[in-house]
């Protein structure tokens, strides 16, 4: 090796070592804050857990209580968001993957979907406030569910599109060569192959909306009492956490930590289920 080549080789090794060190330092820095946040949420949340959390309503200032109505409100609005966003998202993703894969309109829809995917949730909440809340004249759980549906929708569209594109073309051709209609090929062949990936996308979307606060402040607002009427203001865990964390009362601070702990555990469980589904599909394919 000439002197010039050895010099270049040494310089590359030096740059590679610097880049590797900076990457490792950035990873440690990020993980440190992530572990600190998780530890703070778990330690304060576990200390605030008690049976009344699941049996009593959100209390007035300075009193003890629970988050029962907030848990129920979050469940109702998240369920409504999944019911609205999932079928529309799967239908849109199917159109993109099967009928507009490389067309101009398909690329345009993907571009718009990517914008919606990265749009701040508060903007979506303001949009639903203008479209629904102002027309109804008051806040409601229905508006909250629609706002959350707009958040979960692009996740399902993107996931469905990508999962269906991963299905081998030979499966479509084999089914079509037997005279099976296109819609039946999509429903009975393609969906069956991509179902685990689509389900994972729905779960990830559900995990994302579980902690959303901003869109609910503009749509469902809050309700101190039990309410199952989706046309009226409805309590939710993220909004209660936000309001109680900003309050001067220690009892409300404890409830906010308990709510944050429950949301963290819920998102963690959804992530584990999603990983398990992906791993199961990978093992099955191998």
TrEMBL record:
CDD domains: TM_PBP2. Pfam families: BPD_transp_1. GO terms for biological process: phosphate ion transmembrane transport. The chain crosses the membrane at residues 17-39, 67-90, 111-132, 138-157, 189-209, 255-278. One of its GO terms (molecular function) is phosphate transmembrane transporter activity. It is a multi-pass membrane protein. Keywords: Cell membrane, Membrane, Phosphate transport, Transmembrane, Transmembrane helix, Transport. InterPro entries: MetI-like, MetI-like_sf, Phosphate_PstA, Phosphate_transprt_permease. One of its GO terms (cellular component) is plasma membrane. It is found in: Cell inner membrane; Cell membrane. It comes from the Bacteria. Residues 71-274 form the ABC transmembrane type-1 domain. Belongs to the binding-protein-dependent transport system permease family. CysTW subfamily. This is Phosphate transport system permease protein PstA. It comes from Pseudolysobacter antarcticus.
């Amino acid at each position: 090796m000439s002197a010039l080549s050895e010099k270049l080789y040494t310089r590359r090794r030096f740059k590679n070592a610097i880049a590797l060190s900076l990457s490792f330092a950035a990873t440690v820095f990020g993980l440190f804050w992530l572990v600190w946040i998780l530890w703070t949420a778990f330690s304060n949340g576990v200390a605030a857990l008690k049976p009344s959390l699941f049996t009593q309503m959100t209390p007035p200032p300075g009193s003890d209580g629970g988050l029962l109505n907030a848990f129920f409100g979050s469940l109702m609005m998240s369920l409504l968001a999944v019911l609205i966003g999932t079928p529309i998202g799967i239908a849109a993703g199917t159109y993109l993957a099967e009928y507009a894969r490389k067309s101009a309109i398909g690329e345009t829809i993907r571009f718009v979907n990517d914008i919606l995917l990265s749009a701040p949730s508060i903007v979506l909440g303001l949009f639903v406030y203008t479209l629904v809340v102002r027309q109804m004249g008051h806040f409601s759980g229905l508006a909250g569910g629609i706002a959350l549906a707009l958040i979960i929708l692009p996740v399902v569209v993107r996931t469905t599109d990508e999962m269906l594109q991963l299905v081998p073309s030979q499966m479509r051709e084999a089914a079509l060569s037997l005279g099976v209609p296109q819609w039946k090929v999509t429903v009975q062949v393609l969906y069956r192959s991509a179902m685990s990936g689509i389900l994972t996308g729905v779960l990830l979307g559900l995990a994302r909306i579980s902690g959303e606060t901003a869109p609910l402040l503009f749509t469902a607002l809050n309700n101190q009492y039990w309410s199952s009427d989706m046309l009226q203001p409805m309590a939710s865990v993220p909004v209660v956490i936000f309001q109680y964390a900003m309050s001067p009362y220690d009892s409300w601070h404890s409830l906010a930590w308990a709510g944050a702990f429950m949301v963290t555990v819920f998102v963690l469980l959804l992530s584990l289920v999603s990983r398990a589904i992906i791993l199961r599909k990978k093992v099955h394919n191998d």
